[in-house]
């Protein structure tokens, strides 16, 4: 799944990845605009596919086969409440009070953009809102550290230290990752770490940072559909992701609008 070599990108390649990322952000905005009680996750998937078709791009999620024999059937992942990541879009309708993570990828000119957000459906509990806010803030904190000379442990440690100080937990099982011509490239970026350890951040690295935060236990399991990852205790989870380029000018968020 992960190539062992780290592909450093040229400025021209980063410019293409910025376009892939922008289109991915636009796809997610189109989906976000349709999130309300009563809409099905399959309908949200259709919104993403229509947008991408109209813009001549596609999602690398569709038919993605990590070797489990079940290619992913959607263009987005829709993960509701205790579902942390990799939820399969389908007939399930959103209900008032749910929280949903939508993860999407876009391939443009051979390069991938990968990002995700979590939002509430209608009115949500104050704990659910705090979970979402903490997850977003964890991504912001991590993003600021994506500069040449820092190490991956600085980033992972900052994510987990902040999340735990807020009374929540980070997954230790699922990670961020390099992004480029492949959706998943080396290296992996964990949501925990030791400052000063791990791989050195270098100019030209393009990495998806994705804090996955849980209210209860950090332990997760995969459902029998071989995709959907849920918290084992059924507690709420949230997920936020951007693809970032490490540049000499500082962190460049490739997946912003
Ligand atoms: Mg993603
Ligand atoms: Mg990712």
Structure description:
With 257 residues, this protein is α+β, with helices and mostly antiparallel strands. 27% of the residues lie in helices and 25% in strands. It contains four helices and 14 strands. Strands 7-6-8-13-14 form a five-stranded antiparallel β-sheet. Strands 1-3-4 form a three-stranded antiparallel β-sheet. The chain has a three-stranded antiparallel β-sheet with strand order 2-11-10, with no helix packed on it. Strand 6 and strand 7 form a beta hairpin. Helix 1 (11-32) crosses helix 2 and helix 3 (126-144) packs antiparallel against helix 4. The chain is globular and about 45 Å long. The two termini are 28 Å apart. One magnesium ion binds at residues 103, 114, 116, 241.
Strand-residue fraction? Answer: 15-25%
Round the mean pLDDT to the nearest integer and report it.
Answer: 97
State the helicity in percent bands.
25-40%
What structural class do helix, strand and pairing data support?
alpha+beta
Number of strands: 14
Major sheet: size, sense and barrel closure? 5 strands, antiparallel
Shape category: globular
The tally of helices reads: 4
Could you tell me the radius of gyration in angstroms? 17 Å
- Terminal residue distance: 28 Å
